[in-house]
Amino acid sequence: MQLLILGLNHKTAPVEVRERFSIPKQSVRQGLANLNDYEGINEAVVLSTCNRSEMYAVVDDAKEDLPTLKQFLFDLTGNDEDIDEYLYHFVDEECIRHLFNVASSLDSLVLGEGQILSQVKEAYAMAREAGTTSTVLNTLFHRAIATGKRVRTETRIQYNSVSVSYAAVELAEQELHGLKGRNVLIFGAGKMAELTLQHLRSHGVDKVLVANRHLERAQELAARFEGEAIPFEGALKRAVDVDVIVTSTGAPHYVVKPWETQRLMTKRGGRPLFFIDIAVPRDVDPDVGEIKGVTLYNIDALEEVVDEHVQERQQEAQSAVAIVEEEVRNIEDKFQYLAFRPLMALLSERCERIRQREIRRASTKLPELTKAEWRQVDHMTRMIVRKILRMPMMKLNASAGTAQEQFYVEAMRALFKLDTIGETDTSEAGQNSYRYAQQ
């Protein structure tokens, strides 16, 4: 078995691609619930944020199962377009290193930002709840989260960190030559909207309007910042005297359209309007930016603002990289230690997964069977698996402590493809790295 990651992020794909492959939480839950339909994928965690969509998996064979993982991505997003130029995949050690970098915010658009660690935790929790993690990904994600915490504790990488929301406000201030006394409308009432309002208030904005589909949430957020909550539908009608509009919703479609923006600009009598769209998928139709008097920036435009501050944190990033490398070595040792767990536990669990998968497939073809009959089928298949495994287990147990022990261990791994993460390394040390057994 091997560790495999497939994904795209802000480094490899523009926002118009990322938004098409953004995965809503409900789709993640549904996809994980049906993971058994994907032959060769034994464990999986799906991480989807505004800047990345990634799938971490334990597979039988990375090369053979990569197309299956790609199909899983297509099924989760409802897209099947050719995006190979935007995708990346990592195997074994590079997969571990990538996840640790992600959890430590070393792979973020904003170096040192803290939100990604919470997003990694949430993605892992969803997979645990769905039952799609076991020994390998449980071990990997526990260590990744611990690594992210360690980086934030032992370095100052988060200090002087520029969040996406802060970068958005900085951009608005640059373009408008100051925000003091300006009026702002914000679409959304989530964490990103809250952080943006904090920065806007600290920069001296005057009137704040908050629009959200759930009015009560808009009212709660507006109250904290002495603003006014307004209905989501028709919110642009209240933007006649607004200078800046920030959008940060989770809508799967555009919430600001050209025709209503054009009508708004007519009422404004030529006064310029500044849009910052920090949502993925995007909230503002790109055609809005073509309207006279409108300036539109999306999340990719914030990179220049972020780059102005990144040098301040590069030194701390070097310390963070050293921590990540140390943790990568530590988890290699952990996976190697797991090899000494009973080998048959791994084989038994694999056979049980296969048995359960085939039972589920058969259930769709035999709807006439009663619950009592299905209990008989379940018992029968369990006994078949047990009897098939009995002789290999006896042979392995009998070889313990003899000259043949290593021969039977290696034979078992080879015959049942139970060998370990790390087969891309042809050295003896590499072959022995990352060995694990499922509990």
Structure overview:
With 439 residues, the chain is an alpha/beta fold. The protein folds into three domains: 2-154, Beta Polymerase, domain 2 (2-Layer Sandwich); 164-308, Rossmann fold (3-Layer(aba) Sandwich); 341-419. It contains 16 helices and ten strands. The strands form two sheets. It has a six-stranded parallel sheet with strand order 7-6-5-8-9-10, with helices on one face. Strand 2 and strand 3 form a beta hairpin. Helix 4 packs across helix 12 and helix 14 (371-399) runs antiparallel to helix 15 (405-415). The model is unreliable at 420-439 (pLDDT under 50).
Question: What would a concise description of this structure say?
Answer:
Helix content is 51%, strand content 13%.
Characteristics of this structure?
Rossmann fold, single chain, Beta Polymerase, domain 2, 13% strand, 439 residues
Present the secondary structure layout:
Layout (H helix, E strand, L loop, with lengths): L1 E8 L5 H4 L6 H9 L7 E9 L2 E8 L2 H16 L10 E4 L1 H11 L11 H16 L4 H20 L9 H13 L7 E4 L3 H12 L5 E5 L2 H10 L3 E4 L12 E4 L10 H11 L4 E5 L16 E5 L4 H8 L3 H24 L5 H23 L5 H29 L5 H11 L12 H5 L7
Parallel strand pairs: 5-6, 5-8, 6-7, 8-9, 9-10
Antiparallel strand pairs: 1-3, 1-4, 2-3
CATH architecture of the largest domain, please? Answer: 2-Layer Sandwich
- Terminal residue distance: 15 Å
**Main sheet strand line-up:** 7-6-5-8-9-10
Overall form: elongated
Helical content (DSSP H or I, runs of 4+):
40-55%
Low-pLDDT sequence parts: 420-439
Q: How many domains, in number, for the residues?
A: 3
Estimated structural class: alpha/beta
CATH top level class name of the largest domain = Alpha Beta
Within CATH, the superfamily of the largest domain carries the name Glutamyl-tRNA reductase, N-terminal domain
Summarize the main sheet. Answer: 6 strands, parallel
Beta-sheet strand percentage?
Answer: 5-15%
